[in-house]
Amino acid sequence: MKKLIKLFTPKFDSKEITAATKALKSSQWASGAGTGKVLEFEKKFKKYVGSDECVAVNSGTAALHLAINILNIKDKEVLVPALTFISTVHSIVYNGGKPIFVDVIPETMCIDPSDMEAKISSKTKAVIPVHFGGLPCDMNRIRNICRKNNLYFITDAAHACGAQYSNKKIGTEAEMVCFSYHPVKNLAMPKGGAITINGKNKRKIKNKLNSLRWCGIDNRKNSFYDITSLGYNYYMDEISAAIGIEQLKKINMHNNIRKKIAKRYNSEIDAIEKMPFNNNCSYHLYWLRVKNRNQFIKNMFLNKIEVGTHYKVAHMMSYYKSKAKLPISEKISNEIVTLPLHPSLTNDNLDFIIKTVNSFLE
Ligand SMILES: Cc1ncc(COP(=O)(O)O)c(C=O)c1O
After folding, report:
1. Closest CA relative to residue 81, chosen from 313, 244, 282
2. Which residues line ligand 1 (CB under 6 A)?
3. Which tens digits make up the pLDDT trace of 150-164?
């Protein structure tokens, strides 16, 4: 029987297996203080992206929750694209803020700076742009709007590990940048995430995040400590960090394969609306838009090709049900299809995916 071509799958070999086994055998599986492999990962990741600091946590959701916690957004508004994974939005609500949904630019699916600017009110405190699919947002425009209106910005780089903007790595574009190392992400761990930190407040923010990720523990001396905030149990474990260190060594190689795949999709898929090719993108996702989506998805699965629908817009989820009108995001949400994209795809897989996609486009 023909095997399903998966939408995502982590790529690993004996290096990750050896590193994980070693971490298991050490019996030091985790430490809230973030020593051992976690510390090594943080040092290596901040060097890779070129950020001032890095704090590792146990998911991208935790990274967003803690980074926004630093801002004190209680009863304030935070601008966020509705076209994103729900954690971007939840992290505002976890911290007592109100998400204000913003539309996206159809060519990039990143937050629309004009709509963002139009939605600024006296209650707006911050913006969370998402580098959708790994394609960097228009950071220069976003930064200018934020400066002009005295707004803070934290970026959601869950898709953008290894992506670049203005000759710099994503991870340096804001005071705090949030990454996910979920198993389907470009840098995969069993569970992981991180916040990279930049600028003059780096030490203060790092210390605060270190405490927040470990239940608010602070001023620790041996077994004595104080609790200075309502922290969380969000620290990264040693097995994930050991795997992450090996994944980090391969991130450029894996991202180059992702780019080659995206280049083929972009030039050979006949859809009119499809993700552009951009050398700065990390290609966590590759999207196209189809009119006959339900039938298209059915046909792809009948041909053993797994596809995704990233994302149903947040403001139409039952929990958020908002009156926001976001015509572009809503239309995209009904038409978007994401194609298999990971470094284990073979040329035969790609030939078959492209041929099959083209045969079912209307
Ligand atoms: C855009 C975006 N933000 C945040 C997250 C949350 O990351 P995690 O699953 O590691 O909590 C994800 C994960 O899918 C994501 O795609």
Report:
1. 313
2. 59-61, 84-85, 87-88, 130, 156, 158-159, 180, 182, 193
3. 999 999 999 999 999
